[in-house]
Each structure stands twice: as C-alpha cells, then as structure tokens.
Amino acid sequence: MRRWQKLLACLLMMPMLIGAPKAQTPEPEGSTAETGTRRTLLRFVTDGDFPPFNYYDEEGILTGFNVDLARALCLEASTSCDIQARPWEALVPALNRGDADAIIAGHKITPQLLQSVDFTDRYFHTPARFAARRDAEDFEVNPEGLDGRSIAVAKGTAHEAYLKAFFRFSAIREFDTPELAREALMNGEVDLVFDDGIGLSFWVIGTSSRECCELRGGPFYDPKYFGDGLAIAVSKRDQDLKHLLNQALKRVRESGRYEELVLRYFPNPVY
Q1: 29, 87, 110, 111: which sits with the fewest CB atoms below 10 Å from its CB?
Q2: What are phi and psi of 107, to 5 degrees?
Q3: Quick one: pLDDT at residue 57?
C-alpha cells in the first residue's frame, strides 16, 4: 500500500516539475538574445573622405557623425571599439573577408549591396529638399504651389525623376551637375533648386552660396526615389551582431545621444 501511495505522490508532483518555468537570466551587456555570446570588441571600418559623416580633422584625427555614433554604440553594448579608415572600395571586401565586423561609412540600403551584405536598421534618412532665394516671396512647397515655377535639378538623378513624376506643371530645368543647378538659383535664373537634403543644408549656410538662399518646405522621403536611408553593413553570417547593433542603436536614440550628434554635425536641420 505504501508503494502505491509513494507512486501516486510522484505522479502528482510531475506536472508541477515539468511545468515549472525556468528562472530568467538577464542578458549581459554586449551579448545577443539569440546566443548570449559576449563580445568584447567591435571592429568598425569607414572611409576618411565623407564629411560630416567620416573625415579627418585639421589634426589628422578620424572624426565625424558616423565615427561618434560607432563609439556611442560600443558604449551601449559595453564593448571596446576599434574604428579604422580604408578606401571606400575596400570596405565591403574587408567585411566579407572577416577583417572587420561592421561598416559605418554612409552606405545606402540598396538591392545591389543586399546581395553581399546585410544591414542594421536605418540610422539616417537621406531626404530631398527644395531651396529658394532668401528674397523670394513665400509660397507653398507642393505641386500646386510650385505650378509654373522654374526648378533647377541635376539631370539623370532621382531628384529629376521625382520632379517629372510629381511636379509636372513646374518648369523643370536640367543641369549637368548639382553645382550648376545651385549656381543657377544663386544667379536668379530659376525660382528653386531640388537636390539632396544633406548637401543643400550645408550649401545654404556655406560660403559658396554667398548667403543667397535658404531651404523651403519640408523633406521628401519617398524610398522609391531616395532610398531607405543609411545603415550599418554587417556580414550575412553574423545575425547576432545585427541584433546587438539594432538594440544599441535603439538605446542611443532613447538616451538622447543620437539627437546630440545630429545637432553637432548638422547645424542646419536636414529633416
């Protein structure tokens, strides 16, 4: 009888043992939820000729928005940070050889690059913007407001294609280069110029514009024309790192550090 009582007691205890939840152990900093692998060093590569994102300052020190963002990501991931500059064309081969863990150099997410690398979440938009002369009258920056107005744009660009698709009743004037399009606006030959928002934001506050012009209207983000923005490239074989960087990027944004970097390197708002 005692044997049956013991067996019954064991059977009654089994569901409790089987169904008992395991204690949750917090993931250590610098590790990923998938594997828990601890990383002690993140090796970034960039190039040195893309200001204000990555460039050498007057003292020959590698700096820029991307460089400081990489350091902030390493800080959030509790890892050491190594950032090396290489020629632009050598960055993807270095990643695929295993000489680097990630590229943070201003790469746009494109179908071509996705064939050889993977990307983190976007960390920077690449919008298009309009600029007009400071002494120009006020007008709405939309297809109706720009009806009949002349707009300079570089030929063969996504910006030209966007204007022809959505601003069909404006007088679109094509120029061989963005610089020539901006010069036409500066000389009063056109009412506006439509171009890359980052480049225009620096041009209007730089010396080459002679303070002639200002940004008008808001940013245009259409990914079909202007892409999905900039992201950090990682190896397709390293999904753990992708997850780690995405989590670190989220925390950098939440902490306010990301906005500090934007204001430091982009004094004239891009967005």
Answers
A1: 111
A2: -75, 135
A3: 96
